[in-house]
Structure formats: C-alpha cells, structure tokens
Design a protein that fits this description.
single chain; about 325 residues; alpha/beta; TIM Barrel; twelve-stranded mixed beta sheet; 12 strands; binds S-adenosylmethionine; binds iron/sulfur cluster
C-alpha cells in the first residue's frame, strides 16, 4: 500500500470511542464534546471487518485509541477479533491508564501486544488538575501492571507544558533508570479548544533533552524493538529504559508517515490534521468492498500537515481522531 508520495502505509490507528473519563486540558473542553450517537459508532465486528479487508493490502500494525478506549465495554472482545486476522503482527493500546491495573491481564490474554500510557504528572493533585477529573490511580502502578502482564515495551507519553508540568521532566526521566519503561516527551500541539494553553506553553524537545542530560550521560539509543513511530530515543547511562522525544511542533515527520486513522464513526482519515477523510461506514454496512475507497484515500493523503500555520481543518480535539 503506497500513497501518492510513495509512503508505505501499514499502520492503522483505530478510535473505538470519542468519550473519555478525563478532560485533559490540551485535549477536550471541560464539559466534553457533543458525543457521537451510538448508532453511528462502528461495532467491534465492523471495526474488525475494516482491518480484515485492509490486511491483504499490507496493513500490519494496529493501535486502539479513543477518547479513552478502556471505557468501551468488552474491549478484549475486539482485541481477540483483530488478533485472529492473518497479517496483523502487532496490536497496541493508547490509554490514560486509569483502568489498566484491572484490565491488563485480560487484554494480554485476548492478544494485545503492548501499551502506551499517557501520563503528564506523577503527582495525584496535578494529575487531577490536568485531567480535570479525580481518579484513584497511579501511572507508575499502571505501567508496572502492564509490564507484569507482558504488555511490553511499555511507553509512557508525557505532553510537556511550560509552567504546568515541566518541573517533572527530571522525575519522568529518572523513572527509566529503574524501570524498563520508554518515557517519551511530546511537544504540546496547540489545537482545538485548549482552555488557556497557548504557544507559550510549548517546550521544544531540545530544551527537554538539555534538562534531562543534567541527570547523567545521555546517549543516542535504539528505540524499543516494537513500534517504530516518530520518536527519537536516548538512554541515561546504566538505565533500564529509554527516553524519547516526539516533535510535532519543532520538526515535522510527515515525509515518513506510515499511518492512517479510523474514527469511531467509521471515517478513514489520512492525516491527523486537515479534513482529508473517506467515509467507510455506509459502504461497510452496505457490504461494499473497501479496497477501492482505501486506494482513493491514499491517493489523497496530504504530503504534510500545516499545523505550524495553524491550519488544522475542523478538528476540535485530538480525542475526536485518537491522537
Ligand atoms: N485517551 C487515550 C490517551 O490519553 O492515551 C488515547 C487518546 S489521546 C487523544 C492520544 C494521545 O494524544 C495522548 O497521549 C494525549 O496526550 C495526546 N494529545 C491529545 N491532545 C494533545 C495535544 N493538544 N498536544 C499533544 N498531544 C496531545
Ligand atoms: Fe481523554 Fe486521552 Fe484526551 Fe486525556 S488525552 S482527554 S485521556 S482522550
């Protein structure tokens, strides 16, 4: 599967719900969004059918995302169906981690390969302030539960915000010394309805790395064996895990983009930003073959996003597209 610029597309991010038990300041308005009607949301069987039709075209890796995917009932049932599809080599989950301690063993047993945990603070009051919801959980315990269940490599994604959580950069980096976690610092993307966040809250990854290198010798490292996304990796001397940076703001990586996205209501989006999408839901429900629609979507996949020019299309929040 090559798009019009010769990029090989083998990775699909599947949003299973637009709802969430958090209201992260950079992602969703505090009062939530107008949720999709239930009838518009693809069933697990429909999602699996999309993957089944794309696998022979070269689809190899899946990520389950949201909203918060773990709040959709019976998520393991979807994982089991996806795992049974020939050609699918890797299934990952993106989660805020609230339900991970409880769910990790069953997800692993159903065939989930690994987990990315989003965590912007290690301090309970601050987690609640950023998420604007108070939940009794600890990101480190959730990550450890995922690791213990065999959902590894465990990646921890931290959105760095100046004046809000940047004083924890060192604490997150230190986690990698003892734990085999891969902590990735992500530049805040000022999109959607983001409370009071502005460009002044964006911290370039160069600054993050400068601060981390005060903790010890930091060398370039290979990333975790699985999941070759857009991060660049480093390792503190003697550390069990690694540190990565993802730089959507200061450097784009559109040239090597290998992914497309399926929204919870069945739209195939070829870029996180902008409004390039093909509706798969009606054709799917009518029993029409999806391959030609997929080819059409890839032929229209944009060369790059225009985030730096603040052209993000109708996107109100990353929770609508799965991030
Ligand atoms: N609820 C799940 C979670 O939080 O991992 C999955 C969906 S969430 C939309 C996916 C990722 O998008 C999270 O890691 C989140 O931190 C990131 N994200 C959302 N809005 C963002 C923004 N404005 N800038 C940078 N990252 C953002
Ligand atoms: Fe929910 Fe994830 Fe968005 Fe936070 S980042 S509001 S956990 S979807």
């Amino acid at each position: 599967m090559l798009d019009q610029y010769g990029r090989s597309i083998e990775y699909l991010r599947i949003s299973v719900t637009d709802r969430c038990n958090f209201r992260c300041v950079y992602c969703m308005p505090e009062h939530g969004l107008a949720w999709l009607p239930k009838a518009d949301i693809l069933s697990y069987e429909e999602i699996a059918e999309v993957a089944r039709q794309l696998a022979p075209l070269g689809l190899k890796r899946l990520r389950i995302t949201g909203g918060e995917p773990t709040i959709r009932p019976e998520l393991s049932r979807l994982i089991r169906q996806l795992k049974a599809i020939p050609g699918i080599e890797d299934i990952a989950l993106s989660t805020n981690g609230v339900k991970l301690v409880e769910m990790a063993p069953a997800l692993r047993e159903a065939g989930l390969d690994r987990v990315n945990l989003s965590a912007d603070s290690l301090r309970p009051e601050r987690i609640a302030a950023i998420a604007r919801r108070s939940m009794p959980f600890s990101p480190v315990l959730s990550a450890s539960a995922a690791q213990a269940a065999g959902l590894s490599p465990v990646k921890i994604n931290v959105v760095v915000m100046r004046g809000i959580n940047d004083d924890e950069i060192e604490d997150f980096a230190r986690l990698t010394i003892e734990h085999p976690f891969h902590v990735r610092f992500i530049e805040l993307m000022p999109v959607g309805e983001m409370a009071d966040l502005t460009w002044e809250h964006v911290i370039p990854s160069e600054e993050v790395l400068r601060r981390v290198s005060a903790l010890g010798t930091l060398s370039a490292a290979d990333g975790p064996a699985r999941g070759n996304g857009p991060a660049t990796y480093y390792r503190l001397a003697g550390a069990a895990g690694s540190i990565g940076v993802i730089t959507p703001m200061s450097h784009t990586y559109c040239g090597t983009c290998n992914r497309v996205r399926l929204t919870a209501d069945g739209r195939l989006r070829t870029c996180l930003f902008g409004d390039h999408e093909v509706n798969l839901r009606e054709p799917l429900r009518a029993g029409t073959a999806l391959a030609p629609l997929f080819a059409q979507a890839l032929a229209e996949k944009p060369k790059e996003h225009h985030l730096l020019q603040m052209q993000v299309g109708g996107l109100k929040a990353l929770s609508q597209t799965g991030g």
